[in-house]
């Protein structure tokens, strides 16, 4: 073979090698591109699964509150069933890769070993299909995400736990007096006597634990309570005062705080100022706006609650003036899980900050806990407005008092707790704070 022929043959072999190298490189490049695309899809799927797990855990923890379990209304077994059902339902509404994730009831786990702070853990699973990785025999990938949420009760954490910051409070002070349970010579000596007997405590000092958890008649949940604008009813069972947030004595501001809640954050142990005067007109106007009532008394379009059917938690039903009814979302009489008639009000000791029985317009009282109440109506009665309500939940500050809220204004000097564990927020319809504790 001559020299030219040999050179041509060598160039042909080199061209063949180059084509092989280019083809192999392109195959590797396509594989890497496919791997990258599939990895991005799996990463997004993992994020969606985590979102579903977070939502499921938070929804389950919310059932600890809505069911009344935190106030002793339902048993632990009932709370688990309600929380499991809600966690699965909410978790599966959060699609992963376009499909509902898998949440078997066995993937919902509870931890009741932390007294007053129940936890729920939800594990969400999903199988995602691959695209480019199929050429390597990988057709799908399984992903799993887990989240744990807690219903946080400050009384169950002791001093040094997270600071409980409450906002969206209605400007009513309820004394630590339980008029439905009279105890002879025991109970709270700072409450007005009823028939010569003392009223019992809502929150039992010195640790202020819930004194009578559970539903009526033995417990306090479901008790009727009448709020008055005429100051303390010394001869009657109920006694209360109005709050002057930040010490402001404006009646129009007080009315606005009733209708739309006060957004300033307070902590357990806060000292609050009482409002001077009865503010009768602002009270009924504020309550009617709050509960969407067209006038005084029952049957004015406001939401209703059934405490007599033996069903726990008490079912609530939309009135004709409910905003969702007005918007055509639900029908009048439909059962609802939230209502603007649900409010949170603070409980005080029954004494002012100097140890004397509190009086309107000048007293400063120390907050020891909170009541969640369902306001049914308001009735104007001479120089008084009677605001009828039902006790739905109770929460104690326990030993965890003081600290500083991350946002909002602190209303006064706090108690002795340090609040070193961060902050959690509650108030309004979100009576007990719900938070993710893992991840």
* Strand composition percent: 25-35%
Using only C-alpha atoms, the radius of gyration works out to 30 Å
Counting structural domains, the number is 2
Largest sheet: 7 strands, mixed
Question: Could you give the distance between the termini?
Answer: 75 Å
Structural class: alpha+beta
Order of helices and strands: HHEEEEEEEEEEEHEEHEEHEEEEEE
**pLDDT < 50 stretches:** 231-238, 407-420
The residue fraction in helices comes out at 10-25%
Summarize the structure.
With 439 residues, the protein is an alpha+beta fold. It has helices at 3-66, 76-91, 251-260, 280-291, 323-326, and strands at 108-111, 119-129, 140-151, 163-166, 172-175, 178-182, 199-200, 203-204, 209-210, 224-228, 241-242, 266-267, 271-273, 304-305, 316-317, 335-336, 342-352, 364-381, 384-396, 423-426, 434-438.
């Amino acid at each position: 073979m001559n020299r030219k022929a040999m050179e041509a043959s060598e160039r042909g072999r080199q061209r063949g090698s180059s084509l092989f190298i280019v083809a192999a490189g392109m195959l590797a490049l396509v594989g890497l591109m496919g791997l990258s695309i599939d990895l991005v899809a799996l990463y997004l799927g993992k994020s969606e699964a985590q979102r579903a797990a977070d939502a499921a855990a938070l929804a389950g923890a919310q059932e600890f509150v809505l069911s009344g379990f935190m106030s002793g209304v339902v048993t632990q077994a009932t709370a688990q069933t309600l929380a499991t059902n809600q966690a699965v339902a909410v978790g599966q509404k959060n699609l992963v890769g376009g499909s509902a994730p898998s949440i078997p009831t066995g993937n919902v786990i509870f931890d009741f070993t932390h007294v007053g702070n129940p936890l729920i853990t939800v594990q969400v699973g999903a199988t995602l299909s691959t695209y480019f990785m199929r050429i390597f025999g990988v057709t799908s990938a399984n992903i799993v995400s887990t989240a744990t949420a807690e219903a946080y009760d400050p009384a169950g954490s002791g001093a040094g736990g997270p600071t409980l910051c409450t906002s969206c409070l209605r400007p009513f002070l309820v004394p630590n007096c339980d008029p439905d349970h009279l105890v002879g010579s025991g109970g709270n000596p700072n409450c007005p006597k009823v028939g010569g007997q003392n009223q019992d405590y809502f929150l039992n000092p010195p640790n202020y634990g819930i004194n009578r958890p559970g539903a009526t008649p033995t417990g306090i949940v479901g008790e009727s309570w009448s709020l008055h604008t005429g100051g303390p009813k010394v001869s009657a069972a109920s006694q209360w005062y109005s709050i002057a947030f930040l010490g402001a004595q404006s009646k129009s501001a007080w009315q606005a705080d009733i209708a739309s809640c006060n957004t300033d954050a307070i902590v357990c142990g806060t000292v609050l100022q009482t409002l001077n005067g009865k503010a009768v007109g602002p009270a009924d106007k504020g309550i009617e706006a709050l509960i969407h009532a067209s006038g005084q008394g029952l049957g004015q379009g406001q939401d209703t609650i059934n405490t007599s059917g033996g069903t726990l938690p008490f079912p609530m039903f939309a009135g004709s003036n409910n905003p969702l009814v007005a918007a055509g979302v639900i029908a009048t009489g439909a059962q609802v899980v939230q209502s603007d008639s649900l409010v949170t009000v603070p409980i005080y000791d029954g004494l002012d900050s100097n140890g004397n029985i509190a009086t309107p317009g000048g007293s400063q009282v120390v907050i020891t806990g909170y009541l969640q109440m369902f306001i049914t109506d308001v009735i104007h009665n001479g120089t008084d407005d009677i605001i009828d309500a039902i006790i739905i939940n109770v929460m104690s500050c326990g030993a965890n008092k003081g600290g500083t809220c991350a946002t909002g204004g602190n209303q006064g000097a706090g108690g002795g707790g340090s609040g070193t564990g961060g902050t959690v927020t509650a108030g309004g319809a979100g009576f007990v704070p719900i938070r993710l504790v893992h991840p």
